[in-house]
Amino acid sequence: MLLEIRGLTKRYRRGATPANDGIDLTIEAGQVYGLLGHNGAGKTTLVNQIVGLIRPDRGSIRIAGRDVVADPGFARRACSIQPQSQVPIDGLTPRLAIETLGRLRGGRADVARLRAARLIDALDLGEWRDTDGARLSGGVKRLVSFCMAAVEPGKLVILDEPTNDVDPVRRRLLWAQVRSLADEGAAVLLVTHNVIEAERSVDALAILDHGRVLTHGTPAELKAGADEELRLELVLDPEAGTIERPQFAGPASVMGNRIVVTVPANLAGQAAAWANDLRHTGRIEEFSLAPSTLEDAYVALVGASQSTSITEESNVRAA
Fold first, then answer.
1. Which domains does the chain have, with CATH numbers?
2. pLDDT tens-digit map of 16-68
3. Which residues lie below 8 Å from residue 65, measured CB to CB, with a gap of 6+?
4. What single string gives the DSSP state of each residue in 43-78?
5. pTM of the model
C-alpha cells in the first residue's frame, strides 16, 4: 500500500466542527484514486496533511511505509503536487518552468529537458513553450502546472482540480497523461468536485462530506445501488410552459432548460413513450434515457443542493 491513512482528524480551533473527522483511506501504486466532495468537504485540509503542511490532531499517515506525520520532510520528497491555485510563473516560459521543477525535485538536467519536451508535446503546448508566463491563458497555465508536477513525479502525485479552465480537447490529452503516471508506477490522488470526470478517470474513489468519508469503492460499486433506476433527461422547448411530471418519475433536478428525473428500470418503455410524445408535440427539443450515473449516486448520498432541487419556479410540476 503506497498511501495509508487511519483515523485522521483535524480541528482548526477548539470546539469547532472537524475539518477532517476520522478519515481512513488507502491508495495503491499504479492507481488513480479520486477524492470527491463539494467545496468545504475537507479535501484541501486532507491534502495539506498528506504533504506535511498541516499536522493532524489525531491519526496516522504513511507513504511507502514511512510515518510522514513524524517525518513531514519525507512527505514533501515523496509527493509531487499540482495545487488548486495557479502556480506563479510570470517571467518564466513553460519550458523553463517545467525543467526547473524537474531539477529542483532531483532530476538530472538532460532527463528534465527530455521529460519537459515530451509533456509539452503530449499536451499540445508547443506554440507556447517559449512564451512568458504572464501572457498565458488560465487554461495553458493550468496545463503547465500539471507538467511541473509530472516532470519528476513522486511516489504519490496529487492533482487538485487539474482540469479547471482547460479546453475539452486538451482535457482529454491531460487525462491520458494522468493514466500514464499511474501506469509508470505512481499513485495518483485526484482531488475534484467534478463527478463526471471522476467517473471516467479513476480506478476507485472516496466521497467526502463534512470531513468524513461517506463511502468508497470503484465507480461501478458506488453506482450499484442505483442500478434499478434510469436517468431521463429532457431538454425543454423555451415556449413549452409547464410539463406534468408523470407519477412513475422521481423528483426532478432542474438545470436551466434541462430537467433530469429518475424512473424505474422496469418502466423504461413507458418513460420513453412519454418523452417521445413530448418531443413530437414540441414540448421538448430532445431527451435521453440512460443508466444512472455516478453523479446520481453522489447526489443521492450527500443530498441535492437547493440550486438543483425542484422548486415552484421549475418547468416541471407533480401530476
1. 3-217 (3.40.50.300), 225-318 (3.30.70)
2. 899 999 999 999 999 999 999 888 899 999 999 999 999 999 999 999 999 99
3. none
4. HHHHHHHHTTSS--SEEEEEETTEETTT-HHHHHHH
5. 0.81
